[in-house]
Amino acid sequence: MKYWYIYPLLSIFVVAMASIAYFGYYRAPDGTTESTDSKIASVEIPSNDYTKNDPNNESVEEKKPSPSEKSPGQKSAKSIYSLGNSLTFGTGSGGDDYTDRLISLLGSNWSVENHGIAGNTTAQMLARVDSKSDYTIVWGGINDVYRGIPTSTTTENLANIYDTVHKLKGKVIALNITPSKGDPNWSTEKQDATEYLNDWIFSSSADYKIDVYTAVEDPNSPGRILPLYDAGDHLHLQQDGYYAVADRIYNLLKEIESL
């Protein structure tokens, strides 16, 4: 036959193709050996796995946690309700109050609400407390002292505020009253009332207590606000003073929340 040599060549070709089919690989252009079905396998994403993007196949996408899921180590959002008077409101700060500082320290996973109203007594604070937050910071009593309200009335109001928060399933962080010596209306009687109320706060039913009195007091002039923290009226704080208060609150939260 004229083309007898074609049959042996055809046999060799058939054997070669059978070998490729049997061993399941081909030689890539760069010389590496790659499985013929690797591209298909890479697009099969297990439903419960977090799969990294395949650089060779754009159809493979990383699985993102849904809103109801948490990434490993992520904590649930927490909320803080700050109840108080002008010191909570931030009078004298000229910038950020203590709640602003807390927001910057705690980060976006926390919400901090400022419910400070200048001039509020503890009775007025009690009348409007409505906290459904994880923590309620209660900072009041200085206006009671300067209006001559009996300390027994102030402690009763504060106790009722704490109880109200507890009934709403929240935790109370109680701040004591800051120094005010140097204010034109300051007197030894007002100082005595301040110290009495501060002692009571630390023996109260509040879940946590923070001594902000010593945080802003001038160690060289007991009973006065440190000049660096004084807004100028010897009663309110400027921004650095509010930051000092916020830092103490943050240190407590860092401990109890393992931040």
From TrEMBL:
Give the residue ranges for region: Disordered: 33-77
Residues of the SGNH hydrolase-type esterase domain: 83-242
Q: Which InterPro entries match?
A: GDSL_Rv0518-like, SGNH_hydro, SGNH_hydro_sf
DNA-binding as a keyword? no
Reading the lineage from the top rank, the first entry is: Bacteria
Pfam families membership? Lipase_GDSL_2 (PF13472)
Output the Gene3D superfamilies linked to this UniProt entry.
Answer: SGNH hydrolase
Q: Compositional bias (Polar residues) at which positions? A: 48-58
Keywords assigned: Membrane, Transmembrane, Transmembrane helix
Annotated transmembrane regions: 6-25
The protein in question is named SGNH hydrolase-type esterase domain-containing protein
Please spell out the taxonomic lineage of the organism that makes this protein.
Bacteria, Candidatus Berkelbacteria
